[in-house]
Design brief:
With 204 residues, the protein is mostly helical. It is 75% helix and 2% strand.
Length: 204
């Protein structure tokens, strides 16, 4: 089997995983961004009220008006947005685990293709370099890290790979205690089937 044939066989599964991973990620990011904006607006208005009161600038009750306007306006919106995000936060750990599991499956599909076509890592072409680590190593050890992180005793090859990645981006520093499959596919910029396919075809 060659890589084009393998990719044709796994395209549906891999492209579905990519879409699910990024849809979930983007939904959480959007909700959090909305909360941050509303919270910042509420804090600015409350700071104005506090400044007026501390500096005796509230003779006409403007500060009191602003306080209640903020409370019933932007802060009320922030409160309801916070409720929405609080709901997300309650399931965020589960969603992150789900996202990581799907990302691990995506790495597994890539690793399986390399393994079937080339055999052991030593016989696989390196591919492009990402943060000083070659593509085939990131795929291989990214899959291994995702599969074995809970053991808390990463293999030397994982330590070498993720130590190098951590030197470029501290998010990879938790490789002994956290599933970093999502962070790995994010670093590879696998946001769609085309980029995923191109990377695997580049190794051949």
């Amino acid at each position: 089997m060659d890589m084009p044939t393998y990719l044709a066989e796994v395209q549906h599964a891999a492209s579905s995983l990519i879409a699910l991973i990024w849809a979930e990620h983007d939904a959480v990011e959007h909700a959090t961004d909305q909360l941050d904006k509303l919270t910042a607006a509420a804090n600015r208005d409350y700071d104005r009220v506090d400044f007026m009161v501390r500096n005796d600038l509230d003779d006409d009750g403007i500060g009191t008006f602003l306080h209640w306007e903020t409370y019933f306006g932007v802060d009320k919106e922030r409160y309801h947005a916070a409720e929405d995000v609080s709901g997300l936060e309650e399931v965020r750990d589960a969603r992150r685990q789900s996202r990581a599991a799907m990302s691990g499956a995506l790495l597994q599909i890539a690793k399986q293709g390399l393994s079937q076509i080339h055999g052991k890592p030593a016989t696989i072409p390196p591919g492009r370099t990402v943060m000083s680590v070659d593509l085939k190593t990131i795929i291989w050890e990214g899959r291994n890290q995702s599969l074995h992180w809970e053991e808390g005793n990463p293999r030397p090859a994982i330590v070498t790979c993720f130590g190098s990645l951590a030197a470029a981006d501290s998010v990879f520093g938790g490789y002994a205690t956290t599933n970093l499959a999502f962070e790995t596919i994010k670093a590879l910029e696998w946001r769609n089937w085309e980029t995923y396919e191109a990377d695997l075809l580049s190794i051949g």
